[in-house]
Amino acid sequence: MPTTWNRSPEDFHRIYLANTDAFYRLGGSNLAPELDEFITKCAMGLWSKARSVTQAHVDMANQIYSRNRAKPTWMLWTLTSAVCDSEVFLPPVFYWNLAENDARRGTETSRTFIRMLTNILLYLAAVDDDVTFSEAEYITECVDKLTAICDTNGVKKTRDALNPLDYVTSQDPSFIEKHPALQNSGGGQTPDKSVVKTDEKSAEKPDFDKLMAELDALVGLDDIKKDIKSLMNLVKIRKLREANDLPIAPMSLHMVFLGNPGTGKTTVARLVSGLYAAIGVLSKGQLIEVDRSGLVVGYVGQTALKTQDVIKSAIGGVLFIDEAYSLSSGGENDFGREAIETILKAMEDHRDDLVVIVAGYTGPMTGFINSNPGLESRFNKYFYFEDYNGEQLMAIFRIRCEKNGYRLTPEAETAAIEMFNRLYAERDENFGNGRDVRNIFEDAVTRQANRLAKLENPDKDALMTLLPEDLEEREENEEPPSTEAAKESKEAAESTETRSEEAEDTEK
Fold this sequence. Notes:
Layout: H1 9-27, H2 32-47, H3 55-61, H4 76-84, H5 93-105, H6 109-125, H7 133-153, H8 175-178, H9 193-201, H10 208-217, H11 222-243, E1 255-259, H12 265-278, E2 287-290, H13 302-314, E3 318-322, H14 335-349, E4 355-360, H15 362-370, H16 373-378, E5 382-385, H17 390-403, E6 407-408, H18 410-425, H19 434-452, H20 460-464, E7 465-466, H21 483-507
Parallel strand pairs: 1-4, 1-5, 2-3, 3-4, 6-7
Helix pairs in contact: 1-6, 2-4, 2-6, 4-13, 4-14, 5-7, 6-7, 10-12, 13-14, 17-18, 17-19
């Protein structure tokens, strides 16, 4: 059932002022900055026990300020980040002073504070029209710790605060319980031992020379290889200067990959992640690849949570965002903006162990970077991936054949070269580069299978060989005719020719 504690943000602010003004008459208005900060921290801890964090929570958080104090400017993604990073409840320093003064003077200001805090937190818990058992437990924990300080100092007892457990409306799990990976160790969560073991096992550094050899073995990408090698040399020298206590200039390691699909951007990103780990820039070297669908949720408050979940899995490695421009293409109210702000904050918070690579078409990506000053300042390394020419496409096709146990006859080799040269010469905005090669290879294997299925016992050589007809492109939806269908077609054609000859004889 709905809670009776739910209030509008405006009503809550009036309640907040009434409670704090009454407290300041006892404890002094000089406590206002510390009190507002303390209750804000309590709100973050409390809402980590809520079912979700929504715009309603943002509106309420922006009402936690005392009279003559500046109004907060929380945004949804900054609030959810603060909630996820909330720590265990600790009584503030000023509260110890209150309790000591009460004990010395025989007053009860510190116990009045407990009743005030209980009321305020119950209103904050009810912002979503629900007080969960976990929220009530959190408020009870706050009350118990503050009460213990009063008892320890000998503050005289007064009437008790309300019991939060009397106002529970549901037993629903909190969103931290539903998303345990979102909270850091400061929140008092016990780390999953299996995750720790996995991290320890994967702590072995990648082999720098092996990764560089993989980079060199890639088809084409000559300029990219040169730029990556120069970057790695620069970073290695920076590490050496740092080790020798020499000054180093600030440097961003984040990158922008520009180019059409299928040009090797993801492959290079994987190698870069491993290379960074090999030289000690990153702690792990994993690559986490996402696009807009992996970051953005279509309702308020959840995009920041989903994005933070992805970021946490990428810490220690590279977060690779494909078609990143789609995050800024939906206008000012689009949830993609929330994802961008969350990513920018993470780039700052984890700048020593997280690299972000954004990728996409050249034109849209330029607009994306220019759409936000934070993006412009953090991304200053641009890598341009050119389209593969016909010769390079053919080289990729040969590699696919070799890896999968196929070989081309001389005639098929000639046909393939002509096909890829034509594919490159006639390319348009939908040109898929390496992806087109993969599709052509898979189609060729399918045609070969259809061809060999007509044979009773094809030998190993036949199973490995691709013929020119296996590379021929068919019209869309055209199926290769079966042997029986071909026979029927031939008979129908012969029958038609016979009837035509008979008609001509009749006319004569």
